Each structure stands twice: as structure tokens, then as C-alpha cells.
Amino acid sequence: MAAGAVAGLACDSVMHPMDTIKARLQVQRGPPWRYRGIIHCATRSVRDLGFAKGLYAGFGAVFLGTAPTHALMFGAYRESARELTPASPPPYALSLLLTLATASFGEAVSLATYVPTEVVAKRMQVAAVGPGRHYRHAFHALSSISRVEGARGLYAGAAATALRDIPYTAVQLALYEAGKALVGSSGSAKDIDHGNGGGSGGTDGVGFGVAGGLGALAGGIAAAVTNPLDVVKTRLQTQPGGVERMYTGVWDCMRRVVREEGWGALGRGVGARVAWVAPSSAIVLAVFEATGRALGGGDGTDDGVPMPDRASG
């Protein structure tokens, strides 16, 4: 769990500006468009709001929620994997299903802390282009939402978040574990492990660079596939409350977005999402592996779902 927390903090500290850009691209409605793309959004945000508010708006909420969220996710994932994995390596298909199930369980557990902090972060990130909410800082936003909107406000978009994040994490970790198995079976992982106990076959011996590369590839693919639900989640979490509420739920939001803005609106911000998620996934998974070894837990794979080589599955 500590490895997951450290990995999450490292990731969000570096990649938060791209998440801010993504959120602003997703909530804007046009034409005319306030932001024409990633670069234009970044430069205009800094020009209009300054560096901190322009790119790091809402980071306080993310910082507070990252450690418990990633610790819960990776902890639940590894513990459930340990309990469900048979003593002998299962066939490849079964191990893949186990990874999907345990990754989904880990993501579901982490939503308890992730959704409230994400609501706060998203509202602060889009304050310049969305409803006229102006919070002084993360604690002010959290207390204001709790007082005015209650649990419904704090957990706005929870269903959309689950529908986005559970399949995203399942696909991401399944691709990542499969990639480690393939790299390990080829023997190339041993070349960069530098004495971290690379074994023969299996997933042992994957070094920091390989973990990062596999993490970026797996995260980028999963991010692109789940972008439509990310658009819906952002819209639900940042919409006005009370009688000004625009969407009643996930399906209503998706239906209205398509009807009023076209199918292309569900792909809005996909470039920024992939540009944010791919390196974030690389950082999280590579740091998780390295931290797990530093804390004496191996490379984090022995207690997880084993991903045997395809040839031996």
C-alpha cells in the first residue's frame, strides 16, 4: 500500500497540469471555442490565470486524496490477488481473468476517497470556463460542497467514475501484467534489472525502464478507449447544482451530449487524456515496482496474480 501511495504522489505532482487542460477542453461548449487545443489551452490558462491557478488549480485536493486512493487501490488489488491466486500458476486465460477481477475490485474500493477529492479538483480546475464557483482553496471547496450539496455533491458523477475507472484499471493492469510476462519470457528484462532478482520466465526481472514503457503503453490504450465516459464524468462533476442542473445521470448526460454537440464531443480532450494518462501510468507502475522492492516486497508481482508465459500457459 505504501508503494502505491508513493507512486500516486509522484505521478500527480508531475502530470496535474495536463489533467487541468483535459478538464477545460472537455467542459467547454462551442463554437466559438475558448481553447483550440492542448497548447492553446496551456498558454492561455497561464496568461489569464498565472502558472499556479492556470495549470495547478485543484492540486491541493488531488494531493490530499492521492495517497489514500492509490494505497487503497493497490492494496486491495494485491491482497485480493493473493487470496484468489491458486498455489500453482494457472493457465494464461485464467490468470488474465483474475487480474481483471482483482484490478476492478481495487479500483472500486479506492472510489470511496477518490470521488470526493476529484469533485473538488475538477470544480477548481474548470472555474474559469464552467459554472461560477470560486473556492479559495481545497478545504474551502470541500466544506462548501458538503454544506450546500451534501453527499450528493461530494459524490457527483460517482457512477460515471466507476464506469470509467473500473474498466480502465482492469484493462491497464491486464495489459501491463501481460506485457511483463512477454518481456520476461523473451529474456530482455534481465538485461536492465541490475541485480533485482530477475528470474527465468514469468514476470521477475522487469526493471524500472521496462515497467515505465509497458505502463505508458497500457495506460494510453486504456485511456483512449474510456475517454467518452471521462467526458461524461467531468460534465456531471462540474455542472451547476439545484434547478440549474443540466444532467440527471450518466445515460442522460451521454444522450444529451451526443444530441446537442454530436458524437465528436465524446472524444473531446482525448489527446490531452492520453498525454496525461500514458506518462502517469508509466510513473505510477514503475515507481510502484521500484518502491515495492525498496520496501522489501520484491517487485510486487510475487504476491499478485501470476501472468505465465503464453507458450507455457
Notes on the structure:
This protein is mostly helical and 313 residues long. The protein contains 11 helices and no strands. The chain has helices at 2-27, 38-55, 59-84, 92-125, 138-154, 158-186, 190-193, 208-225, 227-238, 250-261, 270-294. Helix 3 packs antiparallel against helix 4 (92-125), helix 8 packs antiparallel against helix 11 (270-294) and helix 9 packs across helix 10. The longest helix is centred in the middle third of the chain and has 34 residues, at 92-125. The relative contact order is 0.16.
Summarize the structure.
The chain has 313 residues and is an all-alpha fold. 71% of the residues lie in helices and 0% in strands.
Sum up the structure in keywords.
disordered C terminus; 313 residues; mainly alpha; single chain
Structural class: mainly alpha
N- to C-terminal separation?
A: 29 Å
| Number of helices, counting only DSSP H or I runs of 4 residues or more | 11
Major beta sheet summary: none
Q: What average pLDDT do the residues reach?
A: 81
Order of secondary-structure elements: HHHHHHHHHHH
Uncertain runs are 194-205, 299-313
**Rg, alpha carbons:** 20 Å
Broad shape: globular
Strand content: under 5%
* Topology, number of strands: 0
